[in-house]
Amino acid sequence: SGLTTFSVTLQKGMSTIQEEKPKLSPKQEDVQKMLACGVHLGCRTSTYHMSPYIFQRRDDGVNVINIGMTYEKIKLAARMIVAIENPADVCIVSARTYGQRAIMKFAQYTGANALTTRFTPGTFTNQIQKKFVEPRLLILTDPLSDNQPIRESSYVNIPTIAFCDTDSPLRFVDCAIPANNKSIKSIGLLYWMLAREVLRQRGAISRAEEWEVMPDLFFYREPEEKKEAEEEEAPAAAAPAAAAPAPSW
After folding, report:
1. Which of 22, 162, 190, 203 could form a disulfide with 140 if both were Cys (CB 3.0 to 4.6 A apart)?
2. Which residues are CB-contacts of 229 (< 8 A; sequence separation ≥ 6)?
3. What is the mean pLDDT of the chain?
4. Burial 186-196 (b: 16+ CB within 10 A, else e)
5. Are 157 and 169 in contact (CB under 8 A)?
6. Residue 232 DSSP SS3
7. How far is 50 from 171, CA to CA, in rounded Å?
8. Residue 219, C-beta contacts closer than 8 angstroms, at least 6 positions apart
9. 151-178 CB burial, b ≥16 within 10 A, e <16
10. What is the pTM of this model?
11. pLDDT of residue 198 exceeding 70
12. Which residues is 164 bridged to in the sheet?
């Protein structure tokens, strides 16, 4: 199929990158995870500024993102985050529901400040309101849906990191990470890779060992799926209790 052909072509391109840039090249496991989660799949439309990140255009009109550049930009973004002395000065915003769980997990493991509720206008500019914060770095899931925080960050000169799809505008974005920001698995994997790279550069975890945290923890789960999982776990938890002998008084 066409997708298989593009996957093989991308893997050949990644092998070339590994030969040219061994320090910045991703491992084969990372490439397989990115392809499985659809990080390389963009939109049918593209902006002029995102054209350098597009690897090829499929027959059905979908733009394929160069995941080699995605990995390099994740390394660059992690270096920007590590440069901030206080991790709480890094602010993460996601207006998309799919990114809420990912930013909470990212904040949990890196110590950043996640704004999970609705972004109130004036959070970065109005000092009177209670939710006023002064971050030193801003991370966004989508420049289109998070247009209010990125506009306010330009007023107060806050550097901005954003996951940008092929149709995303790059105005006021300082570090654009080209990737699919419309898929649940893609968003979760991107934040997982960024959190892992931040911890590696801080020296919290080793590059030689695999991070024990699974990418699935960063994936958004529907409320119905959570309810079904809890209902399946309830009988299993009740079975050992029922099998235990009753105490004799």
Report:
1. 162
2. none
3. 81
4. bbbbbbbbbbb
5. no
6. helix
7. 11
8. 101, 102, 184, 185, 188
9. ebbeeeebbbbbbbbbbbbeebbebbbb
10. 0.79
11. yes
12. 178
